[in-house]
Amino acid sequence: MSYDLSIETSVTVRVPAKVNVQLSVGPARPDGYHELVNVFHAVSLFDEVTAAPADRVEIHVEGDPSVALDSVPRDDGNLAAMAAYAFAEHIGVEPAVRLRIRKAIPVAGGMAGGSADAAAALVACNALWEAGVATETLLELGATIGSDVPFALLGGTAVGTGRGELLTPALVRGRFHWAFAYADGGLSTAAVYAKCDRMRKAAGTEVGRPAPRPELMSALAAGDARALGRELHNDLEAAAVALRPSLSGVLEAGRAAGALGAMVSGSGPTCAFLAESEAHAAELVTALTASEVCTSAVQAYGPAPGATVISSDP
Ligand code: C5P
Q1: Which atom of ligand 1 is nearest to the CA of 112?
Q2: pLDDT along the chain (314 residues), means of 10
Q3: Is 20 in the pocket of ligand 1 (CB under 6 A)?
């Protein structure tokens, strides 16, 4: 019997970006991380990761040129590579996999694109190696790679506590529509947290343990976009704007165009604008693009599903 070796086994996983509708940052912990209340909302901007057998871990990156592809590490520093090593070690196999990452999520943009790729790599390796590892274990492995990785596995909308890795799914009615404005160049998450600490210290601000905002949780459960727009909250926004002052003009342009709410996404520099409807999100994208305050703008809806196998060959 002969086999057609040109048919390669591969698994492709689609994984969403996130926006934080509430990001409340508590005091720094002894391990350097901050205690958070992080209300994650997965949105319909997706990266795809295809895993196929190889001699070792290999990373290939392609995709939308507007998302700064050149700055994605092609070596073991890529979070998807770290996920493949962690997964292979967990199940006791050689980390022999090629990961082809097709990016649409902005790189270092505050939308957890790197964490999304790590989550996708965990799911893809699990399927490729037919390992049958349970979601609970994937969530634990994901948390060792980055605070946002567990949420990318879960998707939907969820309240993250601890450093953001302990998740409780939240009730959401219907869909919310968003416009996102991309910026040139990323911001380092660690640098934005550090700037937030320095600004609080300089102002003498003492912060306690954060809590979910009841009005925000009600707005999500009711599918009330106007109420959600009023409640959007990001403690990292002031630090991101201090490091990248041009972001205040981006936020202002979205507000002037009628956004129900405007915020920096996570640690930035992507800015997120909540719309009344899908058509309104399209109008916001047009207005943001025309105002030339950002490199590009896209629309998306949330909640979106977490990392999911979309094809498996043969
Ligand atoms: O967990 P992750 O590697 O994604 O975090 C990146 C950086 O963001 C951390 O090194 C830390 O500086 C900062 N961070 C934090 N508190 C958190 C999450 C992240 O200070 N809860």
Answers
A1: 4
A2: 58 98 96 96 98 97 84 94 98 97 94 97 97 98 97 98 97 98 93 97 95 98 98 98 97 98 97 98 97 93 98 84
A3: no
Task: Compute, in angstroms, the gap from residue 148 CA to the centroid of ligand 1.
Answer: 9
CB-ligand 1 contact for 177 (6 Å cutoff)? no
Nearest ligand 1 atom to alpha carbon 148: 4
Does the pTM of the predicted model rise above 0.85? yes
Ligand 1 nearest atom to the CA of residue 34, by list position: 16
Residue 163 beta carbon below 6 angstroms from any ligand 1 atom: yes
> Hey, which residues are catalytic here?
18, 148
Torsion on CA atoms 292, 241, 275, 149, rounded to nearest 10 = 110
| Best CA proximity match to 146, nearest among 74, 59, 58, 79 | 79
Instruction: For a ligand 1 pocket test, name from 25, 147, 188 the mutation site with the most ligand atoms within 8 angstroms of its C-beta.
Output: 147
